[in-house]
Write a structure and sequence with these properties.
Length: 296
C-alpha cells in the first residue's frame, strides 16, 4: 500500500502530483494502523457493524446496497490508475459488492474489504467533526467537485444537494446517531438539467429557473449523469423538464398550473425543493377557477 511513494525501476508506479495523492497517503497510513493491530472504531458515537455503517454513510437505503455509487466514490477518491495497480478495474464493482456483503466473521476479498473500511471510517470521522454536511464521495471538506448546498426543507429535515447530483437529508430520528439518507431529487434535477440543456436552455436561464448556482449546474452538465430510457426512477426528471417548458410557454407558474395542474402534481417530492419561480402561488385558487369553468 505504499504505491503512492514507491518507485519501481527508477519510475513511479503511479503518477505523482495528481489530486488523489493525498488519499493514497491516507490509505497507506490507515493500513499501517490495521497491520499494527490498532482498533479503529467508527467515529459515529455508537457501536455499529459494517452494514450499519454503510447505511449511516448513505450507501444502503431501503435495505439495498447502492454498489454503483460506492464503486464510483472509491474511483473518484483514488483514481483508476492507482486502483489498477492492485486489481483489474473490470469487474471492480461486483468484487466490491461481494466483499461488502460477506458475513462479518468471514475473511475474503481483503483488498476490497479494506477499501470499504477506509472509506466508511473516513466519512464517519469527517461527519462527526464537521458542522456542515459533506458528500460521501468528496476527498475532503474542500473538494469543489462535491460542493454541498442546503436545498430546501423536507418533512424530515434539511435537504442537501451536491454538485455530483447526490441529494440527501440527515436523519437522527431513532436516537441511535445521525445518518445520511439519500434522496432521488438530486438525480432528477441533474437529469432534467441535461435534458433542458439539450433543448437549448442556456446556463443563466437554468440558474434563474432552478435557483441553483451556476458552478453547480456546470458541474452537473459536465458530470456523468446519463440520459437513459425512461424508467420509474427517472420519470420525475421528465416531468420536471416538461413543467419548466410549460412555464416558459405560459409565462409563469400560475398560468402553467391552470393549463396542466396534473403535471405539477406529478412532480411528487420534487415540490419540496422547487424555487418560487416554478411554484404556483395558490394551487387551490387555480383549482377553483378551473372548476368554475367546468374543467376537471
Amino acid at each position: 500500500m505504499t504505491a503512492a511513494v514507491r518507485r519501481g525501476g527508477g519510475y513511479p508506479i503511479v503518477s505523482e502530483g495528481v489530486p488523489e495523492i493525498a488519499e493514497w497517503h491516507r490509505v497507506a497510513k490507515f493500513n499501517l494502523r490495521l497491520l499494527c493491530g490498532e482498533f479503529l472504531p467508527p467515529a459515529t458515537g455508537v457501536k455499529t457493524s459494517r452494514l450499519d455503517l454503510l447505511e449511516r454513510c448513505g450507501y444502503i437505503s431501503g435495505g439495498k446496497l447502492d454498489k454503483e455509487r460506492l464503486g464510483n466514490d472509491l474511483l473518484h477518491r483514488f483514481g483508476v490508475e492507482y486502483l489498477s495497480v492492485f486489481t483489474p478495474i473490470h469487474g471492480f464493482v461486483s468484487s466490491l459488492q461481494r466483499a461488502v456483503l460477506l458475513d462479518e466473521n468471514r475473511v475474503g476479498a481483503p483488498f476490497f474489504a479494506m477499501l470499504v473500511c477506509y472509506l466508511l471510517n473516513h466519512i464517519a470521522e469527517r461527519f462527526a467533526s464537521s458542522e456542515d454536511p459533506n458528500c460521501p464521495a468528496s476527498r475532503s471538506c474542500h473538494d469543489e467537485s462535491h460542493r454541498v448546498i442546503q436545498w430546501g426543507n423536507g418533512e424530515r429535515g434539511h435537504h442537501y444537494l451536491c454538485a455530483c447530483g447526490l441529494s440527501f437529508i440527515i436523519l437522527d430520528d431513532d436516537g441511535s446517531g445521525a445518518r445520511i439518507h439519500p434522496t432521488q431529487e438530486g438525480q432528477d434535477v441533474a437529469l432534467a438539467i441535461k435534458i433542458l440543456s439539450e433543448r437549448s436552455y442556456s446556463v443563466p436561464r437554468l440558474v434563474r429557473m432552478l435557483g441553483i448556482s451556476q458552478d453547480i449546474i456546470l458541474k452537473m452538465l459536465n458530470g456523468s449523469v446519463a440520459i437513459l430510457p425512461w424508467s420509474r426512477r427517472t420519470e420525475r426528471a421528465k416531468y420536471l423538464a416538461k413543467w419548466i417548458d410549460l412555464i416558459s410557454r405560459c409565462g409563469d407558474a400560475d398560468a402553467a398550473y391552470v393549463a396542466r395542474p396534473q403535471l405539477y402534481h406529478a412532480l411528487g417530492k420534487l415540490l419540496d425543493v422547487l424555487p418560487d419561480i416554478l411554484t404556483p402561488r395558490d394551487t387551490a385558487v387555480s383549482t377553483r377557477k378551473r372548476l368554475v369553468r367546468g374543467e376537471r
